[in-house]
Amino acid sequence: MIDTKRFIHTSVLTAFAVLFSVLAGCAVTKKLTAADILSKTKLEFESFALDSATINKDLFPKTDNLMSGLLPNPQVVSLVQDFAKGILEKEIGTVHLTVGLNAKNQGEDTLWIRGFVANLALDTLMELPVALRDSVTLAPGDNKLFVVTQMPIDRRIFKLGEIQTVHIVGRIDVSLKAQDEAFMIDFDMDRKISPEEKQALADKARTSVLDNIISDWVGAIKF
After folding, report:
1. What residues does each domain of the chain span?
2. What is the pTM (predicted TM-score) of this model?
3. Rounded Cα gap, residues 94 and 108, in angstroms
4. CB 155 within 8 A of CB 85
5. What does the angle CA 194 – CA 199 – CA 205 come to, to the nearest 5 degrees?
6. pLDDT at residue 64 tops 90
């Protein structure tokens, strides 16, 4: 005579075992697929540029006297003269930097970007945390990724044009679907800065900072 309780118990255990085996098999298959895709995904360091500068809002106090406000502000004149000479006694704002990467997905599946953590080293000048801007997926083929950061405008700003190498190290977390388990792509890349890029960095830093100093001075006048 069949023991009904034992039969039901055994059937449930068997069903759970089959289900677990199927799920485990799916998980293993996903990991193998993800590993294959990751092995075919290469990151390349393409560009490094200074985008803009922001001057601290409280650098120049607002003035109620229109006529005196329109005259050359001694603080502005002194700051501009010192900056032109490569002198900066205090931090006056931030410059915004962008790094361009290319993620070449040589597979046939689209990857979802789930996380990005990295640091950018400008020679020995400084190390800065970077954040990924606006990217969600890595489609098959080339994908342009842009990461952004900012550095303080202090005396180190005058060393930007002397940087020889930019180094970025970190990881990018990706999955096969938006809600799937994420897998890591570690990267560690150097990029030499060309003489033309050095000059562009120095020129952009100088013009952006000076333009913003003048703009903020004008903005401090109450009309």
Report:
1. 1-39, 42-219
2. 0.75
3. 41
4. no
5. 125
6. no
